[in-house]
Specification:
Radius of gyration: 31 Å
Structural class: mainly alpha
Strand content: under 5%
């Protein structure tokens, strides 16, 4: 039990570090490209390769590699149900750092999205399973023989082939969901391969003869195939559709597919209480909402100053408002054809009545 908790916190730390490195890598690369643009060098979008001489760009690339390595290692220690959703923190880190170093101001929606991402990640960490079901490649092999996972894998491969050869040629250029669904369902298998390879590498470090196991090399070949398909179709989606649309949708579909695969293959949910299951799902949905608010409204010029006056003024300011409360003004001008009797005593009323009788 104590070793399981140590592995859990090790995987959690690696996942958080991975998000920090990956989020910072985007800022370093962007900063390097902006420096080249200010110098008048040919930009990367125009076919230039001057960024290869910029140390900031290389720092971003190294940071990206360190983040991916930490994420790879995290799967060897912590459940995939925890590691995969925490990838949203890289989006949060990138958004926060860009507001400081790239002068890309976060609007109110962006700040609320960051807060929701932190809240959802905290809820998922609190309720995630802390014990690993698979600790060796032999145990992984037994899990892969499970009939439930075999059915799931067949469905994933079959649906992917249908999407690639039948749906994508006709609707891929029109519907953003086609390419993203291909990446997501294939990604669920790639994460399983990453987890198996991570466990194998951990055994290799411990001194086991893992390289003689056929399963290790099968997982490596499957990972290379799945990742190549993911990169290809994700690039197609990013080339055709807006990044602010592709990124949140891909995160939702990819994370959902990984969590479903993890539930079927590793059966992590069976060892969780109903409250922990509800908490994990709630945390994931909170992260999804935060990612949506970060991307969907990032181009809207909505700030605190543009909010209504009663939302920006504090309660103390409202109490000190010098304007007194007043009722609606009375109607001073009667409508046409309507005669308003004068105010006063009975004599005035009698005079007004006699005057009315004289008028035709």
């Amino acid at each position: 039990m104590e070793a399981g908790r140590v592995d859990f916190y090790t995987g959690l730390s690696l996942a958080v570090c991975s998000s920090l490195f990956i989020g910072a890598s985007f800022i370093l690369k962007k900063k390097g490209l902006l420096r080249l643009a200010n110098k008048g060098s040919t930009r990367a979008g125009q076919g230039g390769y001057a960024y290869l001489k910029e140390w900031l760009w290389w720092a971003g690339l190294i940071s990206m590699g360190a983040g991916e390595a930490a994420n790879f290692a995290a799967y060897a220690f912590a459940p995939a149900t925890l590691v995969t959703p925490l990838g949203a923190l890289s989006v949060l880190v990138s958004a926060v750092l860009s507001s400081y170093f790239l002068n890309e101001r976060l609007n109110v929606h962006g700040k609320m999205g960051c807060l929701l991402c932190v809240l959802g990640s905290t809820v998922m960490v609190v309720h995630a399973p802390q014990e690993e079901e698979v600790a060796s490649l032999s145990a992984m092999a037994e899990k892969l023989k499970d009939p439930g996972f075999i059915v799931f894998a067949v469905c994933v491969v079959g649906s992917s082939l249908v999407l690639i050869f039948a749906v994508a040629p006709r609707f891929g250029q029109k519907n953003v969901l086609v390419y993203i669904m291909i990446c997501s369902v294939i990604g669920s298998l790639s994460v399983s391969c990453v987890k198996g390879l991570g466990i194998g590498i951990k055994e290799l470090v411990a001194g086991s003869a893992v390289l003689k196991e056929p399963l290790f090399w099968c997982l490596l070949v499957c990972l290379a195939l799945c990742v190549s398909i993911q990169i290809s179709y994700l690039n197609k989606a990013l080339d055709i559709f807006n990044t602010s649309i592709v990124t949140p949708i891909y995160y939702v579909f990819f994370t959902t597919s990984v969590m479903a695969c993890s539930a079927i293959l590793f059966k992590e949910w069976l060892r969780m209480s109903p409250g922990a299951v509800v908490g994990t799902i709630s945390g994931f949905l909170t992260i999804v909402l935060g990612i949506f608010m970060l991307h969907a409204f990032k181009d809207i010029p909505f700030s605190w100053d543009s909010m209504p006056l009663y939302l920006r003024k504090g309660a103390r300011d409202l109490r000190r408002d010098p304007r007194p409360y007043a009722a609606l003004p009375a109607r001073d001008n009667p409508a046409e054809g309507e005669v308003k009797p004068p105010l006063g005593g009975g004599a005035a009323k009698d005079g007004w009545a006699s005057q009315q009788q004289k008028d035709p």
